Automatic annotation (TrEMBL), chain A:
It is an enzyme of class 1 (oxidoreductase). GO terms for cellular component: membrane. Residues 1-77 form the 2Fe-2S ferredoxin-type domain. Its main location: membrane. This is Hydrogen dehydrogenase. Its EC number is 1.12.1.2. Residues 77-116 form the 4Fe-4S His(Cys)3-ligated-type domain. It holds the Pfam family NADH-G_4Fe-4S_3. It comes from Methylobacter tundripaludum (strain ATCC BAA-1195 / DSM 17260 / SV96). It is found in: Membrane.
TrEMBL record, chain B:
This is NADH-quinone oxidoreductase subunit F. Belongs to the complex I 51 kDa subunit family. It comes from Methylobacter tundripaludum (strain ATCC BAA-1195 / DSM 17260 / SV96). Signal peptide: none annotated. The keyword Zinc does not apply. Residues 583-609 are annotated as: Disordered.
Length: 239, 609
C-alpha cells in the first residue's frame, strides 16, 4: 500500500521526500503560491500556500507529506485569509496593474483574481523604490518586487551566478545585485539567464518585449492561474 | 585597512561562519563597514559581496554609512520610557547638537534609538560603542556630552557610567546554590552519563526560554541522531524587552552555566559548544572569556576533560542587534554568519542545526538548572513547583515597583505574592513574558506562574494606575515592526500594518470599524506568520483589547469617516513647492458636521457671499 494524505477529503498518494505541495500538484490539486516553483528549493515565505494540516497551519511548499495527514486547502477561511495575504503584498509595494507591462502575464495579479481580490483592503504604503534600467537587456522595477527570492534561487541554483540577493530587515527588505555600483549593468547578468525569466511579478523584465503579445491575449487573460499552474508546473513536480 | 581586515580574516581562519564576528570588529574600528572592506572580505571568505551586504543591512549594529566615533544608542524599551527616557533623549540630542538617527557634522557622535538593552532595572539605559550605560540622568548626560566633546577615549570615562548591578532580591533553589567549579561534571561522571540524563528527565526540567520543551527529551533526541558531529548552543540572546536575568546569571553564575553546557555535551556527544551572547552584553565578554580560559586550565574544557576522555570547548559569539536571533533556528543561522532568518521546520535543530548537524539549543537558565540537577539529583528540583512545571523560575522584574531586579520563585507562585515582594502598589496590570507574552489586569493577580497558566521567559513589567495601557501597546507594536526579519508576508507587512493601525487609533484618527479591523489583522498575523515573532506580535493588542475594549473605543472619532492620516500635514510638501501658506493652502481634518474634509477657501476665491 502506498502512503496517502487527504486534501479536502480527497485521497492523494505521495512518496517519501515529497512535500504537501508536491503531492497536491502531482494529483492535480492546486494550492495558491507565489514564491514556489518546483525547480527550485522551496522557500516558504509568501505564505499563500498555507494549508491546515491536522488542524495546524503549515506552508504546503515546505511541509513534508506524512501518511494519514488530513489537509484542508479550499476552506472559506483559508481562501479569505490568502486574499488578505495577497492584499498585503499589493499594499507594501507599488502594484499598478493597468500601467504595468506584465499585466495578464503576472502571477501576483492572477492569484489576486483567483482569490477574488477586488480592492487593497489595507492602506497602501506607497514606498519610494527605484527602477534600475542600466542593463542593456534586462530591467528591475523594485516597485513590484515581492521578495519571493525566485531570482535569487534561479541565479544561484540554475545559472551558477549569484546575481541577486535579498538585503535589509523587516519592511525594509530589498533586492540587491552583485556589483560594486549596485547596478544590474555591472553584474554578469544575461538576458538568457533563468533568473531573468522567473519573476512572478513585473519586477524583472526583458526589455523591448513587453507588448509583443497584446493585452487580451496573455497567459491569464483567458485561463485562471490554477489551470495554468497545474498544466505547466505539475510535470516538474514529478521529476 | 587592508592589513587590518587581512588580520581578522586570518584569525577567523577565513571561515564565512565568522562573518558576524569579523563585521563586529570592522564596525568597532571604523564605525561603519566600508565598501572596500566588503570587497576584500568577499575575496578572503570566498562569498558573494551581496551575502555580506545582506548581513550588514540585517543587523542593527552594522552600518554601510559612517556613524559617529561615539555611537550612542538609547534603549527604547517601555521600561526606559517609564523612567523618563523621552525627555532625557531630547536633552541629550540638544546637548550634543545631533538629531536622532543622524551623525553630527564633525563625525564625532551619532545618536539613535535601540531596542531594549536589558537594563530595565537600572534604566534609562543606552550603549556607547556597544558598551552598556545605565541609570542615565541629566547630570550623567552632561558628563557624557563633555567627555564626547573632549573626545576622551572610553577607557578614560568614569566607571560609574558603566556600572551594572545584579540586583538579586530573592534567591531560591538555583540562585542559593554555590556549586564548586567542576562539581556538576564530577557528579555526572560519577553517576554515569546515561543516569545523569535520567536524573534530568525525572527532574521534569523544561526549557526556560518560555516554550517549555522538556530538556531531557531534547537531549535524548539529539544523542540518538545518526550524525555524530553534534553541537551545544547556549541561547544568551536575551532580547525580550523587560528580560535581564541571563545578564545576571552570566555575570554571577557563568561557571555553572558552562558546566551545564559541558554536561549536555557529555550526554549528547558534542565536541563544540557556543554561547550566543547578545551584542548588548558586550560588557560581559572579557569576563566570560577569562572564565572559559580558567576552565581550560582546570581541565574542565578542552581535550580529555577530567581524564574522562571527553573533548569539548566553548566559543563565545556576539550578536549584533536583532531580536529575532533569540528564535533558535535564526540564532543558528546567525552563528553560521548569516542574517537571522528562522528556518523552515521540520527539520528541527536537534536533527539538523548548526551546519546541518544535530544541535541542542537551550536557554542560559536551563543549563544552570541542569548543572544543579547533575549535582543534587532530580528530587532536589522536582520536589518544588507544580505538577506540570517543576522547579523554580527566575524573573526579571521592572516597571512600577520599589525594588526592580531579579527574583526566583517556585512555579505555582501567585502574581500577588510577587507584587508584594517587589513593593508594587496601586497596580493596574502586569505584562508577563514581555511583549510576546500576556498582559494581565489587576483582577487576575491570583493567577500563577506556571507553564499551565502564565508561562514566561522571565520578563515581568509592572504598570501602576498612572500609566496608559495604549502607550505600552504603541511601544510594543513599533518594537515588533522594527524587529520583524521580513521573511514572510504576514509578519513583514502585518507588523507594519499593526503599527500603522495602532498609530492611527492612538493619535485619534481612528473611526468606527477601526478596532474591528485591528482585531482581524491581529488574527491574520498570529495565525499565518512563519515563526514565534509574528505569531506573538499581536499579543499586546489582543490581550489588552480583551481586557479594556472601552479604552480602544474611546479613542475613536464619533464620525463615520475620518481620514486615516493628517490631511493638513500631507499638504506640507505641496505648500513648500508652491511657496504658499495662506488659509487656502490648509485643510481641516473634517468639517463641522464631521462628514467630510473641507478646504477653507481664501476670501478672494469665495463666491456668492
Amino acid at each position: 500500500m502506498s502512503k496517502t494524505i487527504t486534501i479536502d477529503g480527497k485521497v492523494i498518494p505521495f512518496e517519501d521526500g515529497q512535500t504537501i505541495m508536491d503531492a497536491a500538484m502531482a494529483a492535480g490539486v492546486y494550492i495558491p503560491h507565489l514564491c514556489h516553483q518546483p525547480e527550485f528549493t522551496p522557500h516558504g515565505s509568501c505564505k499563500l500556500c498555507t494549508v491546515k494540516v491536522n488542524g495546524r497551519n503549515c506552508s504546503a511548499c515546505t511541509y513534508p507529506a506524512m501518511d494519514g495527514q488530513e489537509v484542508l486547502n479550499e476552506t472559506q477561511e483559508l481562501i479569505d485569509d490568502r486574499k488578505r495575504i495577497t492584499q498585503m503584498l499589493f499594499v507594501e509595494g507599488n502594484h499598478l496593474c493597468p500601467g504595468c507591462e506584465k499585466t495578464g502575464n503576472c502571477q501576483l495579479q492572477a492569484v489576486a483574481y483567483h482569490l477574488n481580490m477586488l480592492d487593497n483592503h489595507f492602506p497602501a504604503f506607497y514606498p519610494e523604490r527605484e527602477v534600475d534600467a542600466s542593463h542593456p537587456e534586462v530591467m528591475i522595477d523594485h516597485n513590484r518586487c515581492i521578495f519571493c527570492t525566485l531570482c535569487v534561487r534561479a541565479s544561484h541554483e540554475k545559472d551558477g551566478k549569484d546575481v541577486f540577493a535579498i538585503s535589509g530587515r523587516g519592511i525594509h527588505k530589498h533586492l540587491i545585485v552583485n556589483a560594486e555600483s549596485g547596478l544590474l549593468k555591472d553584474t554578469d547578468m544575461a538576458a538568457t539567464d533563468h533568473a531573468a525569466h522567473i519573476c512572478p511579478t513585473g519586477a524583472i523584465l526583458i526589455k523591448r518585449t513587453g507588448y509583443q503579445v497584446p493585452i487580451g491575449e496573455r497567459i491569464y487573460d483567458h485561463k485562471e492561474i490554477d489551470q495554468v499552474s497545474l498544466a505547466t508546473e505539475h510535470l516538474k513536480h514529478g521529476e | 585597512m587592508r592589513q587590518f581586515i587581512q588580520g581578522i580574516a586570518e584569525n577567523s581562519h577565513y571561515q564565512a561562519t565568522h562573518l558576524l564576528q569579523i563585521l563586529r570588529q570592522i564596525q568597532s574600528r571604523y564605525h561603519y563597514i566600508p565598501e572596500a572592506a566588503i570587497e576584500q572580505l568577499s575575496g578572503l571568505l570566498n562569498i558573494p559581496r551581496t551575502q555580506i551586504i545582506g548581513v550588514v543591512e540585517f543587523y542593527s549594529f552594522f552600518h554601510l554609512a559612517p556613524r559617529g566615533q561615539y555611537e550612542l544608542l538609547i534603549s527604547d524599551s517601555i521600561t526606559d520610557h517609564m523612567l523618563g527616557k523621552k525627555d532625557l533623549f531630547d536633552y541629550l540630542a540638544k546637548k550634543l547638537d545631533v538629531a536622532v538617527g543622524e551623525v553630527r557634522e564633525d563625525g564625532v557622535v551619532s545618536l539613535d534609538n535601540t531596542s531594549c538593552t536589558g537594563m530595565c532595572d537600572q534604566g534609562p539605559a543606552g550603549l556607547v560603542n556597544g558598551l552598556a550605560l545605565t541609570r542615565l540622568d541629566q547630570s550623567g548626560i552632561d558628563k557624557i556630552a563633555e567627555l564626547i566633546n573632549q573626545q576622551k577615549p572610553l577607557d578614560e570615562w568614569p566607571e560609574e557610567l558603566f556600572q551594572v548591578d545584579d540586583n538579586i532580591y530573592k534567591s531560591g533553589l538555583l540562585l542559593n546554590q554555590q556549586i564548586e567549579q567542576g562539581a556538576a561534571l564530577r557528579s555526572a561522571f560519577k553517576r554515569g552519563i546515561k543516569e545523569t540524563l535520567k536524573e534530568i528527565d525525572y527532574s521534569g526540567l523544561r526549557g526556560r526560554g518560555g516554550a517549555g520543551f522538556k530538556t531531557a527529551i531534547k537531549w535524548q533526541f539529539c544523542s540518538e541522531e545518526q550524525q555524530t558531529e553534534r553541537y551545544v548552543v547556549c541561547n544568551a540572546d536575551e532580547g525580550e524587552p523587560g528580560t535581564f536575568k541571563d545578564r545576571v546569571l552570566l555575570n554571577a553564575y557563568a561557571d555553572q552555566v558552562f558546566e551545564g553546557m559541558t554536561v549536555c555535551a557529555a550526554i549528547i556527544g558534542a565536541k563544540q559548544g557556543f554561547l550566543y551572547l547578545r551584542g548588548e552584553y558586550l560588557h560581559l565578554y572579557d569576563k566570560l572569556q577569562s572564565i572559559l580560559e580558567q576552565r581550560r586550565q582546570n581541565s574542565l574544557l578542552g581535550n580529555n576533560i577530567l581524564d574522562t576522555g571527553l573533548d569539548f570547548d566553548i566559543e563565545i559569539c556576539l550578536g549584533a542587534g536583532a531580536y529575532i536571533c533569540g528564535e533558535e533556528s535564526a540564532l543558528i543561522e546567525s552563528l553560521e554568519g548569516k542574517a537571522g532568518i528562522p528556518r523552515n521546520r521540520p527539520p528541527y535543530p536537534v536533527t539538523q542545526g548548526y551546519l546541518g548537524k544535530p544541535t541542542v539549543v537551550n536557554n542560559v537558565e536551563t543549563f544552570l538548572a541542569a548543572a544543579g540537577i547533575a549535582v543534587n539529583g532530580s528530587d532536589w528540583f522536582a520536589n518544588i513547583g507544580t505538577e506540570k512545571s517543576k522547579g523554580t523560575k527566575i524573573l526579571s522584574i521592572s516597571g512600577d515597583c520599589a525594588r526592580p531586579g531579579i527574583y526566583e520563585y517556585p512555579f505555582g507562585t501567585t502574581i500577588q505574592t510577587i507584587l508584594n515582594d517587589c513593593g508594587a502598589d496601586d497596580v493596574l496590570g502586569v505584562q508577563v513574558g514581555g511583549p510576546s507574552g500576556t498582559f494581565i489586569s489587576n483582577q487576575e493577580f491570583d493567577r500563577k506562574l506556571a507553564f499551565e497558566d502564565l508561562a514566561t521567559g522571565g520578563s515581568f513589567i509592572i504598570f501602576n494606575s498612572s500609566r496608559n495601557i495604549l502607550d505600552m501597546v504603541h511601544n510594543f507594536a513599533h518594537f515588533f515592526a522594527h524587529e520583524s526579519c521580513g521573511f514572510c508576508t504576514p509578519c513583514r507587512v502585518g507588523t507594519s500594518l499593526l503599527q500603522k493601525q495602532i498609530d492611527k487609533i492612538v493619535e485619534g484618527h481612528g473611526s468606527a470599524g477601526d478596532v474591528v479591523a485591528l482585531e482581524e489583522l491581529c488574527q491574520l498575523v498570529k495565525n499565518y506568520s512563519h515563526c514565534g515573532l509574528g505569531q506573538t506580535a499581536a499579543n499586546p493588542i489582543l490581550t489588552t483589547l480583551e481586557r479594556y475594549p472601552d479604552l480602544y473605543q474611546s479613542r475613536l472619532k464619533e464620525i463615520s469617516f475620518e481620514p486615516g492620516f493628517d490631511l493638513d500635514g500631507a499638504l506640507e510638501t505641496a505648500r513648500r513647492m508652491a511657496n504658499r501658506n495662506d488659509a487656502g493652502a490648509h485643510l481641516a481634518q473634517t468639517d463641522a458636521s464631521g462628514s467630510r474634509p473641507v478646504a477653507s477657501l481664501p476670501p478672494s476665491m469665495a463666491v456668492g457671499e
